[in-house]
Amino acid sequence: MTSVLQAQALGKKYGKRWALRDCTVDIPAGHVVGLVGPNGAGKTTLLKLASGQLEPTAGDINVLGGRPGSTPAQLARVGFVAQDTPVYAGLTVAEHLRLGARLNPRWDAALARERIGQLDLDPSHRAGKLSGGERAQLALTLGLAKRPELLILDEPVASLDPLARRDFLQGLTEATAGHKLNVVLSSHLVSDLERVCDYLIVLVDSRVRMAGKVDQLLATHHRLTGPRHALDRLQHVISASHTDRQSAVVVRSDAPIHDPAWTVSRLSLEDLVLAYMDKHAAENRRVALEVQR
Length: 293
Description:
It contains nine helices and 13 strands. By secondary structure, the chain is an alpha/beta fold. The protein has two domains: 3-214, 3-Layer(aba) Sandwich (Rossmann fold); 220-292, no CATH class. The strands form three sheets. It has a six-stranded mixed beta sheet with strand order 5-6-7-3-8-9, sandwiched between helices. Strands 11-12-10-13 form a four-stranded antiparallel beta sheet. Strands 2-1-4 form a three-stranded antiparallel beta sheet, with helices on one face. The longest helix is centred in the last third of the chain and has 24 residues, at 269-292. The relative contact order is 0.13. Residues 5-230 form the ABC transporter domain. GO terms for molecular function: ATP binding; ATP hydrolysis activity.
């Protein structure tokens, strides 16, 4: 299996509104994949389609070689943790584990008990009395103990404080290192993705704007600073900002850049993501101006 998720011209419509439209994406196996994009890009809709919670309006989607949610066996192969880290407030930690064992045929009771012990969660405590970070860790434990082949996490740390986010991501890293597990993690916090992901996809308006291994993306994109008159010599410009005399440009290049007119510096992953989002925003502004004319 070379891909855990493939979608072709995928779309989901609610009434007259398209939440996802004409989305084509290929997510490779064997990675912790970060999915990032602005609000309204279609990330959550894509992930819910992938987990079998939604049926597509248009196009095709294939997850782990099958149609999402098509059979109980297919459902068992995919774990899902939503943004609100859903747990039942009235149930204790122990009751959550017993429920997980009843609902999931591949349930790993030993793993669940071990994680709860490591997290120092009292099995008798009700989920409604746990902190936000503890609820998120309980939800992650349920997702991991399901023993899925693909674990999907949709903004799981969005509402957590920095310490709880760190602990959650550390737990995820340890779990993926110890098991053959494919992960797709969506987040607005690129710094969090940089800590745990080795593959990145930027989704804007339902379309993939950038995809690849994180180390390769960072190695093949550069920030250049130099005179505006030298812009014509550049190729594969992703984004640019200008003053009267100087330009700051992000470019994609597989080869080193030796043009003496430009000072070359490294990009952070967040810089790179923002460059592709800026590029899309600039394209939209240009189209809008042309329409007005």
